[in-house]
Amino acid sequence: MHVCMLLPERFPPDIRVRKEASALRAAGHSITLLCRGGPTEQSFARLDGIDVERLPADRLFAGLSGVVDGLRYVASAVHPAWQRAVRELDRQNPIDALHIHDLPLVQTGLALGEELGVPVVADLHENYPEAARQIQQMRGWGEIARDAEALVQRIAFAPWRLKRLERECVRRADRTVTVCEEARAHYIRDCGAESTDMTVVSNTVDLDAFAGDVEPPATLDLDPESFVVSYVGNFTRHRGLDTLVEGFARLVEKSPDAELLLVGTGNDNYVAGLKALARSLGIREQVTFTGWVDFADVPRYLAASDVSAVPHAATAHTETTVPHKLFQAMAMGVPVVASDVAPLARIVSRTDCGLVTPAGDGDALGTALTELTDEGRADDCGENGRAAVEDEYNWARDGQRLCDLYDGLRAEG
């Protein structure tokens, strides 16, 4: 099958999209990915056998025609520029299925599916309406107003409208892909999706990429004897990093040489707040903010860690998603401390790969970190995590679920 994927963001670096496209390509499908492009990026590239077509972001809403496109998108959630690009691709190489990554373009994909007479797969990476709500609350109106596109999104696609779109999209899509059992239950219970149309393809990892036989980055200035706690991922409020900083301060009371490694980046104001919190707790010198790192280097930072934290706050978003970082740490044999949001608590408790603490409770998180300074306990958790990803939580299994979905679509003709 020729599968046309639509992605409203840039590519690379989206890891989930890359894994899915590669899995389908390895199964014999041809993949064309239409995505947003930057002003200096080539409009076409072939990456690992995947054809990548880019729509320059600075031209999507440029000029009178761009304004008209934008107004039509706001009114209908169907984007004319993406429609035109898909039609042109179909003329050159007929499309057999449309695979839409995340909610903003699903309505566009559904309109194209009807027009072209092809099935549509809605791939919902997260609970998008609730994720948008969390990010908008964090940024605030003042910051959003300085970003024209963010302002339009905030006004025209408020969470209540995104929820309505979500309900319509999962009912109309031929298949819906999501990341965990809790999300699947949400779409069936709250959106009216048919259970037979839902497939869970989780954010698991390629075991070869996280084999554990790597050295920590040479650029890290960490005492080899220190107890290192890490977090890897985006820095946003619902990730619960303020709770992690508070919990780490409790750990330092018992282990004064401990160090906290925060790997990633995010909202500038939020990061500044984390640094201020660390200073107020007297631990700023023991907290390292690495900034953005290449995905290929993530295993090295985990190799430097004695414990990895996934301290998500309890929100409607985090209760229905599971992050890559959990499986990355498990694959590297690093014990985990996670908050008790449903997907994290279920997996960590079931596999005994670490400890679960109440979301937002810094004292409890600090106690859990302290417990894992016991090398025997930590080693057991790390070994359990690695065994669990080898047996069940790995991309070989999840990628096959995606391929099975497409085998079913092909059989239906």
Topology:
Layout: E1 2-10, H1 15-26, E2 30-37, E3 44-47, E4 50-56, H2 63-76, H3 80-92, E5 97-101, H4 106-116, E6 120-123, H5 128-145, H6 148-156, H7 159-172, E7 175-178, H8 181-191, E8 198-200, E9 228-232, H9 241-254, E10 259-263, H10 268-280, E11 287-291, H11 298-303, E12 307-310, H12 324-331, E13 336-339, H13 342-351, E14 354-357, H14 362-371, H15 375-391, H16 395-412
Parallel strand pairs: 1-2, 1-5, 2-4, 5-6, 6-7, 7-8, 9-10, 9-12, 10-11, 12-13, 13-14
Antiparallel strand pairs: 3-4
Helix pairs in contact: 1-16, 3-4, 5-6, 5-7, 9-14, 12-15
Describe the protein.
With 413 residues, the chain is α/β, with parallel strands linked by helices. It is 48% helix and 17% strand. It contains 16 helices and 14 strands. Helix 1 packs across helix 16, helix 5 (128-145) packs across helix 6 (148-156) and helix 12 packs across helix 15 (375-391). The model has no long low-confidence stretch (mean pLDDT 92).
